[in-house]
């Protein structure tokens, strides 16, 4: 069930809701949570996370920002989640499709592969 469907379910039940983050939420997950929050302004509160405090190096650019003076967030700039993978994502940004198979699966970069992924 998508988060937006859960919000609708909660509203129909007459309950209030909070939009939160998960431990170690970084990059695309931060901006996806923000997109959900800006689409559902009736949330009691929105948790912005602390990626700026705990993750000095992000795998996306631009870095999602939190204004710690006012405890506010801004919507992502641009289309989609407004992020691009940067050079720090390279070790994890490798996809693989077996010959004759139409589905993709993500694998570690070749130099990080083990026998299990070969």
From TrEMBL:
It comes from the Bacteria. Residues 98-118 are annotated as: Disordered. This is Enolase C-terminal domain-containing protein. It comes from Streptomyces fuscus.
């Amino acid at each position: 069930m998508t988060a937006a469907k859960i919000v609708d379910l909660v509203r129909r039940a007459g309950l209030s809701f909070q939009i939160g983050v998960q431990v170690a939420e970084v990059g695309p997950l931060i901006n996806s949570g923000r997109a959900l929050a800006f689409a559902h302004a009736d949330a009691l509160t929105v948790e912005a996370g602390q990626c700026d405090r705990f993750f000095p190096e992000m795998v996306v650019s631009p870095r999602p920002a939190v204004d710690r003076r006012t405890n506010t967030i801004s919507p992502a700039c641009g289309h989609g989640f407004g992020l691009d993978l940067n050079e720090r994502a390279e070790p994890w940004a490798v996809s693989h499709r077996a010959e004759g198979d139409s589905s993709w699966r993500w694998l570690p970069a070749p130099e990080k592969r083990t026998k299990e992924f070969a």
